[in-house]
Amino acid sequence: MTDKSLPVPGLSVLVLCALALGGCGSLDRLSNVGKAPALSSIEDPTAQPGYKPVRMPMPTPQPSSYAANSLWRTGSRAFFKDQRAQQVGDIVTVKVQVTDKANLDNETKRSRTNNESFGAGNLFGAESKIGKVLPGATAGALVNADSSSSSEGAGSVARKEELTTSVAAVVTQVLPNGNLVVEGKQEIRVNFEVRELIVAGVIRPEDIEGDNTIASTKIAEARIAYGGRGQITDVQQPRYGQQVMDIVLPF
Question: Is 186 within 8 Å of 168 (Cβ atoms)?
Answer without folding.
Answer: yes
